[in-house]
Amino acid sequence: MSFPSPLPRHAPAAQLGFRQERKYYLTPSDAAVLRQRVAWLLRPDAYSQDGPYHISSLYFDDIYDTALRQKQCGALVRDKWRVRWYNGATAQARLERKHKCGDLSRKEQTWLNAAQFERLNRGDCACAAGEDAPVWRALYAAWLRSWLRPVVRVDYDREAFSYTPGNVRVTFDSNLRAARPGAAFSLPVQTDGLVILELKCDGFLPSVVAGLFAGMEFNQLAISKYVMARFCLMEHGCS
């Protein structure tokens, strides 16, 4: 299948805050070629001014491993909870709820103070009680309903580019690692050197961006860093 396949227009979905999101595996050589093309047209995002940056995501799941099972069985509609921070700066961490519907996704988020981050990091979601933001109320309800708690930390390097028309974002992720919540050490998730390409946009993908991928062949895949990291810990007896 040629990359990228035509992305259908989703104007109503975009108006509701949903974005289109697709993921692909790239070999290191393909990633190098595509990165050079993308950098010619798109601008680096705020974190990528000096090259790749480091992302840490603390993922949550419930006692039934609902998020893990839904992703494995290909559930069309699902939620993903995480706390995310960049370049080790936990003082600028955010709580995020990502609502997925097929290739569409919508994100709710709020900044965390130091106390909130520490409590969530150790699984104390009771800190959400009394908070006014909708994402906090949803987290508290999920915790009461099925004991939502942190299950894995995913670390990786990202280089990101953006293009204003269509609110396009192209990211290259590599060096994926997994760790138990609060652990100082992490385990490599990938040993094949593959790069994860993510393509995101609002209602449409501009043709000038699509043209950057001319002559390259990739297949869209249901890639989940969360699932990969969970199984990595399981395989090493760290879950």
From TrEMBL:
<dbReference type="GO" id="GO:0006799">
    <property type="term" value="P:polyphosphate biosynthetic process"/>
</dbReference>
<dbReference type="InterPro" id="IPR042267">
    <property type="entry name" value="VTC_sf"/>
</dbReference>
<dbReference type="InterPro" id="IPR018966">
    <property type="entry name" value="VTC_domain"/>
</dbReference>
<dbReference type="Pfam" id="PF09359">
    <property type="entry name" value="VTC"/>
</dbReference>
<protein>
    <submittedName>
        <fullName>Polyphosphate polymerase domain-containing protein</fullName>
    </submittedName>
</protein>
<feature type="domain" description="VTC">
    <location>
        <begin position="18"/>
        <end position="230"/>
    </location>
</feature>
